# Entry
Amino acid sequence: MKRQSSLVTRRAIIGAAVASAAMPFLAWAQKETRMRIRIAFADQDFTATLYDNPSARDFASMLPLDLTISDYSNNEKIAYLPRRLNLEARGPFPDAAPGDLCYYIPWGNLAFFYGNYRSTSDLIRLGRLDGGVEPLLTRGEFPLRREHLT
# Structure
């Protein structure tokens, strides 16, 4: 009987370890919400739909926000938030694509990706831009306004 109970215990421990290792990878399996936000800078005015995760809800609770958006690298624009977000929905996620709106944990900034990028455990995907990335192709640094739309 002792041998059988130790097998059950080992199986339970291994099962718990496998489940906890898989938890970070479940963050990418997110559904969109009906929460849309409006983003405006320069002469650009567009929308994004947020995902239903704790980090995106935390971000939405900060709106409206007036920030500064600027170019970073050759594939994204960034804007720094006034405080850090909830980190429960951290990546990596397997389907990173232009149009993603993310939060970069080490710097505490939003990242608006208009080019290809690789997801890492330092990124949290908050949502997706509606209608394409063209508005992000305007180069420069601008005041940025973010607010709830619906």
